[in-house]
Amino acid sequence: MTLMAETVMEAAPGFYLVTKDRGFAVHISASADHLHLVRDLAGKTLADAGVSEETAENVQLVASELVASAVRACGDLVPLVVEVETDAADDGVWVRVHDPDPDHLPQRSGVQMDDAFAESGRGLSLIDYLAPDWDVARTPIGKQVRARLPYAGG
Q1: What is the pLDDT of residue 84?
Q2: Bridge-partner residues for 90, per DSSP?
Q3: What is the pTM of this model?
Q4: Which residue from 18, 112, 135, 154 has the highest number of Cβ atoms inside 10 Å of its Cβ?
Q5: What is the DSSP string of 69-136?
Q6: Span 87-121, pLDDT tens digits
Q7: 53-74 vs 32-48: helix axis angle to the nearest 10?
């Protein structure tokens, strides 16, 4: 499955999109509006690539949770890079979120999604469920959280 890089969107304040052969990378200042644009872009990009609606929705959820985690660690309007890319082996989709804080690393919380008393922590439990092998890597300019979602039903 190959996605075609058709355009590079002009830079707008807090939002710059670069399309890739298998997906996209978008540089954003974290905000509700930009997250909405990223979710829409992921859905359209994956639909155009023939990825199932269920997988696309899972990717949108994971991207949202990773962006929310970065905002909790770094604050509103943090500069982020969000990447969505189909796996070169055609067996899943990568979601990567890069933020500038190398010290606040997300950790598996152990909170169960059906825990009625949990006040937080369900986001990472959701990521554990949808992308159980997610990991975090420190980079020269912060950290990147990487999650590979298998295609739904596969």
Answers
A1: 98
A2: none
A3: 0.84
A4: 18
A5: HHHHHH-TT-EEEEEEEE-TTSSEEEEEEEES-SS---------TT-TT-SS-HHHHHHHHHSTT-EE
A6: 878 789 999 999 999 998 877 665 454 554 444 45
A7: 150
- DSSP class of residue 9 equals P
Cα–Cα distance, 29 to 78 (Å, whole number): 5
Contact at 8 Å (CB) between 148 and 87?
yes
pLDDT tens figures, 43-96: 999 999 999 999 999 999 999 999 999 998 899 999 999 999 998 787 899 999
d(CA 134, CA 128): 7
- Cβ-contact 124, 93 below 8 angstroms: no
Cα–Cα distance between 35 and 50 in angstroms, integer?
23
Beta-bridge mates of residue 86? 93
Dist CA 27 CA 44 (whole Å):
18
Strand order in the sheet with 142-150: 15-20, 23-29, 79-86, 92-99, 142-150, 135-139
Is 48:148 a contact under the CB 8 Å cutoff? no
Residues in a beta bridge with 8: 18
Task: Return the exposure string of 95-109: e unless at least 16 CB atoms fall within 10 Å of the residue's CB, then b.
Answer: bbbbbeeeeeebeee
Short-list 150, 4, 127, 153, CA closest to 70: 127
